[in-house]
Amino acid sequence: MKLHGVVNASQDSLADFSIALDVDSAIKRARELIEDGCVGIDLGGAGSTQYAERISTEEEWARLDGKVQAIANLGIELSVDTWNPEIMLRALEAGANFMNAADGLQNPAMVEIAVQTGVPVVLPFLSGDDPKSLAFVSGDPVAHILDWFEVSLNRLDQLGLSKDQLILDPGTGFGPANWDWKDRYTYQEQIYSNLEKLRAFDLPIYIALPWKMDEGRQHLLEILLQVGFDYGRTHIPKQVLEIKEKLQQ
Fold first, then answer.
1. Which residues span the domain enclosing 10?
2. What whole-number distance in Å separates Cα of residue 80 and Cα of residue 26?
């Protein structure tokens, strides 16, 4: 299990303790995350929630510029989480060495960047043609996710992207704004309890881990730690490692 700690260069994040709006605070948070057990950093400059401000390419890059270079100098795994191919390319040129392709590699320009750079790519499941207006599936979500990845992997192979670059994310960090927590919990529990089915693709698995521990979220984290995953995107690595240790006792 490799943990990637979250640094948000956007003030829209609901996890306000993860926000770093200048280079010094970004480096400070990145160092703290590494000291607490992370081997990588996931940096984002544009919020993805319904509350987040929709910003231009230049504004998103202004939030990231300087922070990417400074964190890259720590010599760790560094992903930038973005929908925008231009932002992704600039970030990789500035020192990032992972892609967190928030568009699910729907944009041909994003696929081309992955092909040309050869870096590892986090590929999240997205339901619907427009990832910004996500429409969640009805019925068995695991079956739908497996079908989506099978189609996506075949498409990406035809576009020249090496399967070995890909890391699969079941996309549970996304969700409709109007979904009740009860429904979201049931959805996530179904996926996490059957996460081993994603191993059919013989690729690493990446999970956006919960940072709140109320209303059953700790139980969801415990399921994940028991089932196992390869990469965890976390806001509070100490919390994850402490719960993992308790489960092993």
1. 2-248
2. 13
We report the CATH number of the domain holding residue 112 as 3.20.20.20
d(CA 67, CA 190): 37
Indicate the DSSP class of residue 16: G
Contact 153, 185 (CB under 8 A): no
CB 4 within 8 A of CB 232: yes
Phi and psi dihedrals of 123, rounded to 5? -110, 105
Identify residue 229 by its one-letter amino acid code.
F
pLDDT in tens, 206-227: 999 999 999 899 999 999 999 9
Tokens at residue 49, please? Answer: 């929630």
How many domains are contained in the chain? Answer: 1
The tens digit of pLDDT for each residue in 145-157 reads 999 999 999 999 9
**pTM beyond 0.85:** yes
Relative to beta strand 40-44, strand 2-8 is: parallel
**Owner of token pair 């709006």:** 21
Give CA–CA dist 209/230, Å, rounded.
Answer: 12
User: Concatenated DSSP letters for 182-213?
Assistant: HHHHHHHHHHHHTGGGGGGG---BEEE-----
Is 10 within 8 Å of 52 (Cβ atoms)? yes
Measured from the Cβ of residue 208, the count of other Cβ atoms closer than 10 Å reads: 23
Buried b / exposed e over 186-206, threshold 16 CB at 10 Å, is ebbeebbebbeebeeeebbbb
Question: Exposure of 7 by Cβ count < 10 A (0-12 exposed, 13-18 middle, 19+ buried)?
Answer: buried
